[in-house]
Amino acid sequence: MEENKEKETKLKKIKRMLAFTGIILLLGLYAATLITSFMASPAANALFIASLVCTGFIPVAIYIFIWLLKFR
């Protein structure tokens, strides 16, 4: 019983860390895209496309990782 509670607590901490990491990654990517677009950089278009792709990919990857942790 005590071991099960400890496992749930550990899983909650991992979920929070992954969610926070995902937020930081997405915000950093959006900020880089915004900055390069204001500078009229040639990389702005590529960063915009990367932002669009990562907006879907990062949350899905985090969800799959958490789902796989449940089987551990």
C-alpha termini separation = 17 Å
Overall pLDDT: 87
DSSP summary: helix tally? 2
Please write the string of helix (H) and strand (E) elements.
HH
Give the oligomeric state.
Answer: single chain
Using the CA coordinates, give the radius of gyration: 17 Å
Poorly predicted sequence stretches spanning 5 or more consecutive residues: none
Would you count the extended β strands for me? 0
DSSP strand content: under 5%
Specify the biggest β-sheet.
none
Which class do the helix and strand fractions yield? mainly alpha
Q: Helix amount, in percent?
A: over 70%
The backbone outline, from C-alpha atoms, is elongated
In a nutshell, what does this entry contain?
The protein is mainly α and 72 residues long. The chain has helices spanning 2-38, 44-69.
Write the layout of secondary structure elements.
Blueprint (H helix, E strand, L loop, with lengths): L1 H37 L5 H26 L3
Helix pairs in contact: 1-2
Care to describe what's here?
This protein is elongated. Helix content is 88%, strand content 0%. It has helices spanning 2-38, 44-69. The mean pLDDT is 87.
List the main descriptive attributes of the protein structure presented here.
elongated; mainly alpha; 72 residues; 0% strand
